[in-house]
Amino acid sequence: MTPKEQNHGLFDRACIIGIGLIGSSLARALKRDGLARELVAIDQSETACAEAIDLGIVTATSQDISAAAGCDLIIVATPVGVMPGVLQALADVAHDGAIIMDVGSVKGSVADAAAKLPPNLHVVPAHPIAGTENSGPASGFAELFENRWCILTPLARQDDAYLGAVEKVETLWRSIGSDVARMDAAHHDLALAVTSHLPHLIAYTLVGAADDVESVNEAEVVKYSAGGFRDFTRIAASDPVMWRDVFLHNKDAVLEVLGRFSEELAVMQRAIRWGDAQALEKAFTRSRGLRKAIIDAGQESAEPNFGRDSKPTRSDTDQ
Amino acid sequence: MTPKEQNHGLFDRACIIGIGLIGSSLARALKRDGLARELVAIDQSETACAEAIDLGIVTATSQDISAAAGCDLIIVATPVGVMPGVLQALADVAHDGAIIMDVGSVKGSVADAAAKLPPNLHVVPAHPIAGTENSGPASGFAELFENRWCILTPLARQDDAYLGAVEKVETLWRSIGSDVARMDAAHHDLALAVTSHLPHLIAYTLVGAADDVESVNEAEVVKYSAGGFRDFTRIAASDPVMWRDVFLHNKDAVLEVLGRFSEELAVMQRAIRWGDAQALEKAFTRSRGLRKAIIDAGQESAEPNFGRDSKPTRSDTDQ
Q: Exposed e or buried b for every residue in B33-48, given b needs 16+ CB within 10 A?
């Protein structure tokens, strides 16, 4: 029996609140592996609901959170900012013993909201470190979580019912191909500020600032973007509302790592101003090892230019 | 007759000084399209010379610049810092009417050095906006320049012999698949500071600063890099000596655009500190259009995650 078959029917009736990139990818993965007998998408947007039905990734949809009643698994895949409100609403709707799993990029604010829920509801905060720059139900795919890490930040509860719920959530993620780590919410928020939130902030800022130099126009930025700029545009194309909420809800950790980045940037600026060749070369040399480690860990493609230029595109008739 | 055949034998004897990523890619492209009858690699490194012969991409190699004698095309593909010295040495070696084409990422400093050469040598500064994070003769490929822009920054000379040389260089680039733009060296240096030099500096700084947060260790940075960090590691893995020289030789333009970036970053920092949701969402929304323009211009892949995650990697036996 393969692991997939083993976990078949892990949940009976699951719902996903927020059927965007992550929600719809989870829907596809759960469906593919038969992890839930029934799968309902709950989304404020009528369009998103209709799209989810058309895509055939859920068995039903609703614009009303009361559709979460009777679900043994409730996945909250909304922007982080509305999660506290969603959790509060679920307190009146969710049935006894339901597992509520959010998949937000910030965990501290979810933990605070979860602590207010009655103990018969088992909130298991999870964060899959996976995604693309696209949004909406159509952008999801079942393989998104494969060979990616999912971080669980369980609440400070030691009762058997809760620990069992955490185990079940871990089984879900492993079943769809993820590695799973557990840590506390504060550490998650700092680690992800380094590996995800700061990079997004920097990319948004760099891409946004490209039109700051009056004499270099946008057409030139576009043409010569293969010099390095285009690499930043991918994550700077991510969902603005999702990222707005990340920065509003992980303020302290982001400001902390941003401060350290700014110090480092000032050091580089001074090395350039003073023509300190040795300092520059030394700083530029240390990054190669880290990229190699990321490739070796299976978190990155080893292909030059991410492999995106590997297909020859030239045809003589184009000349 | 295809354009490729049309330009067959465009040059008689060509040499490439510096047989790294760009030099060896040019060697492969020139060879593939028969643009030079004979092709010599000149490199200080014995290993690089041996590698170029083994790869079969040149007809001969030399560690001595005097091998440039008798060449009608001399390509200078060294780091920018040594180019002035190379140009000076070529003044004694190159034959009457030779075209000397550098391919450096900074053009102002080359123009200054080129102005000192006798007028019977035709220096045509060129900068192909193409590359990968890899270095060395083995990392090159003939298709590197296809559908990429090459910027020429011709000297302020209007004599027919020189204008003819510029035309011939433009023909070379078009022949191997590039689009060609002409501008003055100062504008090039500012435009590339925006689209290439600043992005590299920011990427190097971000990747280098990843170990600044004591409580987040490198293993965590590696594991959770798919959250965005890994995108920065590609260009931060570029050749340290080449990039050291870029920043030493394009100091003014880099400091100028870096100042503007830092201002923008301070604005973002303040928006986060004050919880200014509207300002953040607005800033995050404007980047999508620019990425779309870059994709539409054929300078970027439209595939999510640059297409690097598109191949399902999971196998049940791995679980």
A: bebbeebbbbbeeeeb
User: Residues, chain B, total?
Assistant: 319
Nearest to B231 among A146, A151, A199 (CB): A199
**Are residues B128 and B155 located together in one domain of the fold?**
yes
Shared-domain flag, residues B216 and B199: yes
Best of B306, B311, B313, B316 to substitute, by most chain A Cβ atoms within 10 angstroms, is B306
**Residue A253 β-bridge partners:** none
Render each residue's pLDDT in chain B as its tens digit; 319 residues. 555 667 888 999 999 999 999 999 999 999 999 999 999 999 999 999 999 999 999 999 999 999 999 999 999 999 999 999 999 999 999 999 999 999 999 999 999 999 999 999 999 999 999 999 999 999 999 999 999 999 999 999 999 999 999 999 999 999 999 999 999 999 999 999 999 999 999 999 999 999 888 889 999 999 999 999 999 999 999 999 999 999 999 999 999 999 999 999 999 999 999 999 999 999 999 998 999 999 999 999 999 999 987 644 433 333 3
Q: Specify whether the CB–CB gap between A272 and A280 falls below 8 A.
A: yes
Which pTM does this prediction carry? 0.94
Give this complex's ipTM.
0.94
- What is the greatest pairwise CA distance in chain A? 70
A238 and A268 both lie in a single domain: yes
DSSP string for residues in chain A: --HHHHTTTSEEEEEEES-SHHHHHHHHHHHHTT-EEEEEEE-S-HHHHHHHHHHT--SEEESSGGGGTT-SEEEE-S-GGGHHHHHHHHHHHSPTT-EEEE--S--HHHHHHHTTS-TTSEE--EEE----S--SGGG--GGGGTT-EEEE---S---HHHHHHHHHHHHHHHHTT-EEEE--HHHHHHHHIIIIIHHHHHHHHHHHGGG-STTS-HHHHHHTGGGTHHHHHHHTTS-HHHHHHHHHHSHHHHHHHHHHHHHHHHHHHHHHHHT-HHHHHHHHHTHHHHHHHHHHTTSS--SGGGGTT-S----GGG-
Domain holding B14: CATH number?
3.40.50.720
Between CA B234 and CA B248 the distance in angstroms is 22
Question: Would A125 be classed as within a structural domain?
Answer: yes
Distance between B128 CA and the closest CA of chain A, angstroms = 9
Last residue of a domain, one of B162, B183, B204: B183
Query: Using the beta-carbon criterion (under 8 Å), do B229 and A255 form an inter-chain contact?
Result: no
**How many Å lie between the alpha carbon of A39 and the closest alpha carbon of chain B?**
24
Asked if the Cβ–Cβ distance from B194 to A221 is below 8 Å, we say yes
Candidate from B216, B233, B293 with C-beta closest to A290: B233
